[in-house]
Amino acid sequence: MTRGHRRAMVTSGRWRAVRRKGIVLGSPRAADEVSAREAMWREALLRVGPSARLGGITALQAAGLVGYDEPRIHVWVRRGDEKGSALGVALHETRRWGRDDAVDCGVPRSTPAVATVQAALWAVSLRQAMLCLVMPVQQRLVRAEDVAVELSRVKRHRFRKALQAGIRDIALGAESLNELDFASACRRRGLPEPTRQVRRQLAGGRAVLDARWEEYGVVVEINGAGHHALDIAMRDEIRIADLQLQGDVVFPMSVLTLRCDPEPLFEALARALRARGWNPTTSA
What is the pTM of this model? Predict the structure, then answer.
């Protein structure tokens, strides 16, 4: 590799020179979005320092997470290590994580379980933190059990107890933020714990139910915005009819109801559970 060859690659925009640091093989201006993002991540690590690793939501994106928009690049270093700064980089110094918590295959970054916990701890709100917990598990990048192990290392944080409760719900089958909100709402009202992500064989094929009280034959289906589409709404109607024919009581709950006026539906749900044998006094 001659200086002339290197200069030509930088001038053409195929590579990017980082002043006094080195060369990034690739460019943020690359036509391929994946290559462009990797070039940005590598440049950020190069600017911060030799011990820098991608962390949090950025490490999860490098591992394949999709559907989460984060303008900043999250990078972490051990407290006391040499470090620089870079525009657009959120730099986190830590004593909690070390070299064993990172992988160097590809872009140096946190392991998926560590990155999930980091993303939740670095979130600006509890709701955002819960989203950071559920998305990697939902997309099969990490197991809820592994996240729980890493979360147990956290001894002090303002979200700690809520995150521990959240990862327990995720491990039990909650696969969306709406399902986590529903589980919390049931718990606040003293309702029994449902089984989540229940697989059933119906006339139209296999179905996965959001929440079912197996002992009482009561089902709640939490419908997001996508369920308003005509074809999906028609499939939902057939599924509800099939479940009722098998003897279940089915409550379809829209996210709008869950957010704005959930009380009437939860009261009806409690009545259905009591009618099918649930005794709040005995359960308590």
Answer: 0.66
